[in-house]
Amino acid sequence: xxxxxxxxxxxxxxxxxxxxxxxxxxxxxxxxxxxxxxxxxxxxxxxxxxxxxxxxxxxxxxxxxxxxxxxxxxxxxxxxxxxxxxxxxxxxxxxxxxxxxxxxxxxxxxxxxxxxxxxxxxxxxxxxxxxxxxxxxxxxxxxxxxxxxxxxxxxxxxxxxxxxxxxxxxxxxxxxxxxxxxxxxxxxxxxxxxxxxxxxxxxxxxxxxxxxxxxxxxxxxxxxxxxxxxxxxxxxxxxxxxxxxxxxxxxxxxxxxxxxxxxxxxxxxxxxxxxxxxxxxxxxxxxxxxxxxxxxxxxxxxxxxxxxxxxxxxxxxxxxxxxxxxxxxxxxxxxxxxxxxxxxxxxxxxxxxxxxxxxxxxxxxxxxxxxxxxxxxxxxxxxxxxxxxxxxxxxxxxxxxxxxxxxxxxxxxxxxxxxxxxxxxxxxxxxxxxxxxxxxxxxxxxxxxxxxxxxxxxxxxxxxxxxxxxxxxxxxxxxxxxxxxxxxxxxxxxxxxxxxxxxxxxxxxxxxxxxxxxxx
Length: 520
Description:
39% of the residues lie in helices and 26% in strands. It is built from 13 helices and 19 strands.
């Protein structure tokens, strides 16, 4: 980015002329840029730093004694979980390791007191409770209440989906009414990155709702919807529950030391001598767009839970291309390098125009300096003469800024894509064990800063005695500190993003040399 801000760019020349006309201090431009990057650095640090939520020591009101309730296991090729009465907990993701150094599968709802509870509420006939002891026969869990109603629960798994089917058989002579509910109770993962949509999530009337941990500390939220889901999302994982029943009420709140996201559907009535059924779908798995889209067949709106930021229309295609390249090269670091080169090739015409304009600006230097000195006290005449000079050389003061402006949304789109990509988690490249995290040895940020300095140095003309003291020259000298500022800023960025910017700098250096030779 810095290569478009030095003395040779149209923006720098325009800014220098403006400063010369208004007799501003030569330090003002540098101070403004320094202020901008200091503020940006502070903002990035605030966003990237984990937020620790204060926990209360009081025991949660949702705690019940389950010591008498037997536990069993359910599993598929992707997950396994513990079932204890109405509750499901300790969901292990078989295909995802805890860390590069720990092959233990990632576990969701593994903290004591964390669980998913799917049950029924009743004001008349007794319904199963968390402490109910079910009779297990194969894959079926059965229980009969004191009125003779028989409850049968089957739990099936398909990938990361868990489907709970509750069948109610009413052999009595009176109707029975029950309201299904599903709730997820969990702790706040204070170590999860806050730059993504972490906290409670819900799908309400075809609209996605998200409340972070800090918001839940302050107040509770409630929604009414015809259908939807409720749950929680972390940087890479999410757990949601959806009831196949209309007229739902979804709530998000903090309950002492736990956070609760639940949904309760409208009551159903099982007529005398009849049988009723209620189906609840649970998703517990990675925030992978392909997996979430496939699960939408059971849980509507699930594919909309990933936040790709303002530039989602760039982030999603970039992530799709990145994953596609990785299927061939089998390494995300190499995939990032290839994608960077492809992006720079697409921008070649614009970058060529920018470099051509830069070379034209270099040729204009003597005449520009003469005009600045000749009309230093006549602002109107100075602007008119500068416009004539630009027209003569067929260039524009802003022509060198277009590639920079295009790279800004690409930069932020890739930044967001790397943060939310579960595939990037623990992706290895050379000495880096996780491309979604910072470079632990700061090698890539240093390489990025070095290539940025070299790119700036190669495109900057030598200062002669007559031009070494003008405002543009002073600004250029101070802009040489920009590679250092960028190095510090990028030190805590995801390593994959720094790799992209480093390769982009190297490509820019080679491209600049080619264009210079062609121009000669």
